[in-house]
Specification:
Blueprint (H helix, E strand, L loop, with lengths): L5 E2 L6 E4 L5 H7 L2 H6 L6 H16 L4 E7 L3 E10 L5 E8 L8 E2 L1 H14 L6 E7 L3 H10 L2 E11 L5 E10 L6 H11 L1
Parallel strand pairs: 1-6, 5-7
Antiparallel strand pairs: 2-3, 3-4, 4-5, 7-9, 8-9
Length: 193
């Protein structure tokens, strides 16, 4: 494909669990500057807490988290997931690392999330992944569609942007039985190319 960005594929990446020694990566990925660069699609009130408590909660087993890396480049994204109040139901988020845009690749978020979902659903106690995606973030909605999430509803005026504006959020969900796996996602991506 001459003249177009190549697509990132899950098979190119490595995933590793977070450890307490990764605090510097968390601070870089969730820095105020990074969140400002993300504009209205970032919700800093949650990320301030993440910077301070994320790794400790993962170390305690309360949350699950991984860094997805591209060999020769480094960390592409942080993936973190937490129980959401009902047995077997989890919610999560994915945040790309600074500098990812310099790769000139498309589909980085999809490739990273596919590996994280393989790791998450490897835990037999995880039955469902549920989330909310701001309607002003069409790239994240498209990524959820590619992963096989079902759009389950709309939460009106659900999220506050950094500017204080309230926006609707699409409620999405993915059952363990619906997750086809990172390899299947990669095959779909290759078929689309």
């Amino acid at each position: 494909m001459t003249g177009t960005e190549s697509r990132m594929l899950p098979s190119e990446l490595k995933i590793r669990p977070t450890t307490l020694s990764d605090q510097h990566l968390v601070e870089e990925i969730f820095s105020d500057e990074r969140l400002a660069a993300m504009g209205d699609t970032a919700f800093p009130q949650g990320y301030e807490q993440a910077r301070e408590q994320l790794l400790a909660l993962m170390e305690q087993g309360v949350m699950k988290g991984w860094f997805v890396e591209l060999p020769g480049f480094g960390v592409l994204s942080a993936q973190f997931y937490a129980p959401s109040g009902f047995e077997g139901t989890w919610s999560g988020d994915t945040v790309t690392a600074p500098g990812v845009e310099t790769l000139g690749r498309r589909g980085i978020g999809t490739a990273c999330m596919a590996l994280a979902l393989d790791a998450l659903f490897a835990d037999e106690s995880v039955h469902r992944l549920a989330g909310q995606v701001a309607v002003i973030n069409p790239a994240a909605l498209a990524m959820c569609d590619r992963m096989g999430f079902q759009r389950e509803g709309l939460a009106r005026s659900h999220m506050a942007t950094p500017a204080g504006k309230r926006v609707d959020a699409v409620m999405v969900g993915l059952l363990r039985s619906e997750w086809a796996g990172a390899a299947a996602v990669e095959q779909r991506l290759l078929a689309e190319s």
